[in-house]
Each structure stands twice: as C-alpha cells, then as structure tokens.
Amino acid sequence: MSAQLFSDSQILIAGVDEVGRGCLFGPVVAAAVVFEKAAISQLPEIGVKDSKQLSAKRREILATEIKNRAISYYISYASAREIDRLNILNASLLAMQRSVTKLSVTPELCLVDGNKKIPNITIPQETIIGGDRTSPIIAAASILAKVWRDKLIIRLATKYPHYDLENNKGYGTKKHRLALQEYAPCFHHRHSFKLK
C-alpha cells in the first residue's frame, strides 16, 4: 500500500480498543470505530479523550456523539468462559477481531491500542502503546467499549446483587473480594483469575 494512500484525508481509519481486561467478573469488551482520516482531528474538539479520564455521564454523551459521527462502529466481546479458556490477552484480541470483522465498511488501516496486532485480519495495522491516551480514534473506541460494558454490568448487578457490581463494574475491589469469599464466584466470574 502506497504512502500516498495513507496521506489521503479520505482514507478510512479504524480505532480499536478493549476494556475490562483487569476485571474479575464479566466479559472483555472491544470496540472498533471508523472515521475518515480528516475527521479524526474533530474528536478532541468534542471532548474525546481516554475513557478513564471522563465521568460516566460524559462518556455516555460522547458515545452517542461518536456513534452519530462515525462511518461505522461495532462492539463485541469475549466471555468470561472464553477468557478462562484462551487467557485474557488472547480473549482481548479475539474481541477486537470480532469487532473489526463485523464493521459495515473495510477500513484501510486499524490503529490498535497496545503492542499486539489483531490476529486473522488482513487489514494493515499499527499498534500504539497507550493509544487510548494519545490517539483520538482509539480513545473514541475506548469510550464506546466502556459505556457498553458498564451498561451490561449494571444489568447483571440486579441478578447478582452480592458483589457490588454497580459500583465496581467487575473490578476486584475489597468489597467484591469479600463477597467472593462469602458467596463464592458465579457463572460470570473469571475462574482463571485470582478471585480471593
């Protein structure tokens, strides 16, 4: 692929990121979002940055804005069972692969958070360590994935009230770990993780 193509402002670029790698509960969720290269610079102007630096309310507002502006996006996941079977890194890459392959358009380049390329896709990829902090399009993907995952965990919290999921979103807080000792893990816990 020529350098000319990558300098073209109209080429389609996908940002890809995942959330929930460090959780004890629930899936790892990945989002892929596609913009024309020229439009990526508009993302910081509307407030897009690393999802961890934004309030839940701000993330929800931005997620809607990103979806409205994006040429395509897709959110996918790998389940707790897949994480246990594959390990968290491979499950994260699987979730990313699912998101990219389900896009309604084929981007010319994927910008991927981290240092591992997504396996089994033929689209050119560039990995960026800390990409959710430095690349607006990866940050946009991180917002979509975070909002989707948080909503899922809040829904599951009503079914599994013991674990304080509404507050911890599946991360291993003290309250969550104490509940695991008292009630044992449920189906959605990652049994390959150190749960106690």
From TrEMBL:
Pfam family, one: RNase_HII
Localisation: Cytoplasm
Cofactor: Mg(2+); Mn(2+)
PROSITE patterns: RNASE_H_2 (PS51975)
Protein name, UniProt field: Ribonuclease HII
Source organism superkingdom: Bacteria
Name of the encoding gene: rnhB
Cofactor: how bound: Manganese or magnesium. Binds 1 divalent metal ion per monomer in the absence of substrate. May bind a second metal ion after substrate binding.
This protein's UniProt keywords: Cytoplasm, Endonuclease, Hydrolase, Manganese, Metal-binding, Nuclease
Organism whose genome encodes this protein: Crocosphaera watsonii WH 8501
Record family assignment: Belongs to the RNase HII family.
RNase H type-2 domain location: 11-196
The keyword Hydrolase is annotated on this UniProt entry: yes
Gene Ontology BP term (one): mismatch repair
Group of enzyme by EC: hydrolase
Listed GO MF terms: manganese ion binding; RNA binding; RNA-DNA hybrid ribonuclease activity
Role according to the record: Endonuclease that specifically degrades the RNA of RNA-DNA hybrids.
